[in-house]
Inverse folding.
């Protein structure tokens, strides 16, 4: 039984995590939210799960390092600077950072990379994501994760080939690019589709999230898997042994 602490415990994901921790037979070691000090929580945990905000990431990682506690980072909206912070923390502790903790999305990313590799650059790739009206970042962290998988399948860097919005007269589609479209509305927990389009045929790989419980269950599985690992940066693919 693992003692799991939550950073961002008062949010919707935090509440779903508390239920998932108990359902999985682990112990909820407590949580903090905005204004709380992660240094007061970390010493009482075997592992931390962070679903807070990018602005809090540095302090959260520092607290985990000081206590020698591994951490799962599921916070989205991270920028390049935040990934540097994760890399630096991974020198001292085990860190699993992901744009989506769903086991289904993890498998989907694996399939997307495989499809991109085998179909080749003649197939256009478009990623469409839909989320609830309250989501503040776009494209979603999951859409970017899927884009990175597609780019990796073609031995490309996503930032070099991503096209995140089209408006006005954009000209013909550039060969080899990966397009993104973001839809917002209602209470959608998260729908993602990766379209591979060629002349006269299309392949679509998709995942529909019906509630946040799937992300919480995946995060708890990742957290329990991370305990006892050597310092380093880990992924959800490793949790599923992909």
């Amino acid at each position: 039984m693992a003692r799991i602490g939550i950073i961002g415990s008062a949010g919707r994901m935090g509440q779903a995590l508390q239920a998932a921790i108990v359902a999985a037979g682990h112990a909820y070691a407590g949580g903090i939210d905005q204004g709380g000090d992660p240094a007061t929580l970390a010493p009482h945990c075997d592992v931390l799960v962070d679903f807070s905000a990018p602005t809090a990431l540095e302090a959260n990682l520092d607290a985990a390092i000081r206590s020698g506690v591994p951490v799962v980072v599921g916070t989205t909206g991270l920028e390049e600077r935040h990934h540097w912070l994760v890399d630096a923390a991974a020198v001292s502790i085990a860190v699993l950072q992901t744009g989506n903790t769903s086991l289904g999305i993890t498998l989907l990313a694996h399939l997307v990379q495989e499809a991109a590799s085998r179909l080749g650059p003649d197939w256009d790739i478009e990623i469409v994501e839909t989320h609830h009206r309250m989501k503040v970042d776009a494209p979603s962290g999951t859409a970017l994760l899927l884009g990175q998988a597609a780019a990796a399948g073609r031995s490309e860097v996503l930032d070099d080939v991503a096209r995140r919005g089209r408006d006005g007269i954009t000209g013909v589609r550039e060969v080899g690019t990966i397009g993104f479209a973001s839809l917002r509305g209602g209470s959608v927990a998260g729908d993602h589709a990766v379209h591979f389009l060629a002349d006269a045929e299309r392949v679509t790989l998709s995942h529909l999230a019906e509630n946040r419980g799937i992300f919480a269950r995946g995060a708890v599985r990742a957290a329990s898997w991370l305990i006892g690992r050597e310092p380093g940066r880990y992924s959800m693919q490793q949790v599923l042994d992909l």
